[in-house]
Write a structure and sequence with these properties.
By secondary structure, this protein is of the alpha/beta class. 25% of the residues lie in helices and 28% in strands. Strands 12-15-14-13-16-17 form a six-stranded antiparallel barrel. The chain has a five-stranded parallel β-sheet with strand order 3-2-1-4-7, with helices on both faces. Strands 9-8-11-10 form a four-stranded mixed β-sheet, with no helix packed on it. The radius of gyration is 21 Å and the shape is globular.
Length: 358
């Protein structure tokens, strides 16, 4: 057998095909399923195609058995709760909109997979992400490249370090989802070939963030005021944890379309506007930065900025001052949101750096 690799198995089609590819390439593959959220008895998440359900664990076991590799299930619920769930709740209550998948990648999956790799004597870890690692021609540093694949997941992986990238494999890289499903069905012969993709947030399958936060805290969300941009009270809201910048639905009846333009958690106010143009801005500041193809930003750097998972990277200029990056977009962008991640790419799609929007 070739070099040993720890393969993160979610029970989904992507990680299943990734494991098969590694095995066919001669790697000694060990499947690892990290239980991070699901309870022991049942999990509705699995019915929605999530990566956390009890059924997903069983699917991962069956795939490993089918392709002839080891499979281990490990409990990371406490770590996930501390590193992902608790910050998720705190951020929403503070008026920010966090991205828990990015936090999970950074603080749970890669850290602990590498620890496990040492224990198992593995040289690499691997996942089923649609991502491609390449070397920047000028800096010589490794970077994840946006492949322009509709399934590209580079945005969610911006905070991987050089040490992580050099020991990480992405077997399905820039493959089309249809081709991945075809391999699963025609070559491997597994039943989950047509399994739905994972939910955006696995532990909030119904997308009701407020209900989840309320269940976690054990108390109702503190109500406050809807106010306009001049501070005039427009009505009562049901807690800042229910809202995010740019939101239009679920605000109540005002007789005209209204949008969330700001959240002042300290004052308990959700600021509304009936002019959608107020949601567009050109400047944002980013902290908690991870550098990838570059070690730092010297002077002004022209690049492309992505402010949410579904956002098309837009031309911008970034500068660095201390631990903060300032970004100025060539054209104003809609609903730049505190707590979300901003990721910057060069003209070839290589990640320069990324961080959290303040």
């Amino acid at each position: 057998m070739g070099k040993k690799v720890l393969m993160a198995m979610s029970g989904g089609v992507d990680s299943s095909v990734a494991a098969y590819i590694l095995k066919s390439q001669g790697y000694d593959v060990i499947g690892i399923t990290m239980q991070i959220w699901q309870p022991e008895d049942a999990c509705d998440i699995s019915n929605n195609g999530g990566c956390c359900g009890i059924e997903a664990v069983e699917d991962a076991r069956l795939v490993c058995q089918k392709i002839g590799i080891e499979h281990h299930v490990l409990n990371f619920r406490d770590i996930f709760a501390k590193k992902v769930i608790e910050p998720f709740v705190a951020d929403y209550l503070a008026g920010s909109t966090p991205n828990p998948c990015i936090a999970c990648n950074r603080h749970v999956k890669w850290v602990h997979l590498f620890n496990l790799a040492k224990a198992y004597g593995a040289s690499f870890i691997a996942t089923g992400h649609y991502a491609q690692i390449t070397t920047h021609p000028a800096t010589g540093r490794l970077a994840i490249q946006n492949t322009n694949n509709p399934k590209d997941q580079s945005y969610a992986l911006y905070n991987l370090t050089q040490e992580a990238l050099i020991k990480t494999l992405f077997p399905i890289k820039g493959m089309d989802k249809a081709d991945v499903r075809k391999i699963a069905h025609d070559v491997i012969g597994i039943e989950m070939a047509n399994k739905p993709d994972s939910q955006e947030i696995c532990f909030v399958p119904d997308k009701n963030h407020a209900a989840f936060i309320q269940a976690q805290t054990g108390k109702p969300l503190p109500s406050g005021n809807f106010v306009d941009m001049d501070g005039n009270v427009l009505g009562k809201h049901q807690g800042v944890g229910k809202y995010t910048i740019g939101q239009r639905k679920g605000l109540g009846g005002f007789g005209r379309p209204m949008f969330v333009v700001d959240i002042d958690a300290a004052a308990g106010n959700v600021v509304l506007t009936d002019n959608e143009n107020h949601l567009f801005t050109s400047t944002m500041h980013i902290h908690d930065i991870t550098f990838m193809s570059h070690e730092k930003i010297a002077g002004e750097l022209k690049c492309f900025g992505k402010i949410r998972y579904a956002h098309q990277p837009a031309p911008c200029t970034i500068t660095q001052q201390g631990d903060t990056i300032t970004c100025i977009f060539d054209q104003p962008q809609r609903a730049i949101t505190r707590g979300q991640s901003a990721v910057f790419y060069d003209e070839n799609g290589l990640i320069i750096c990324g961080g959290i929007i303040t």
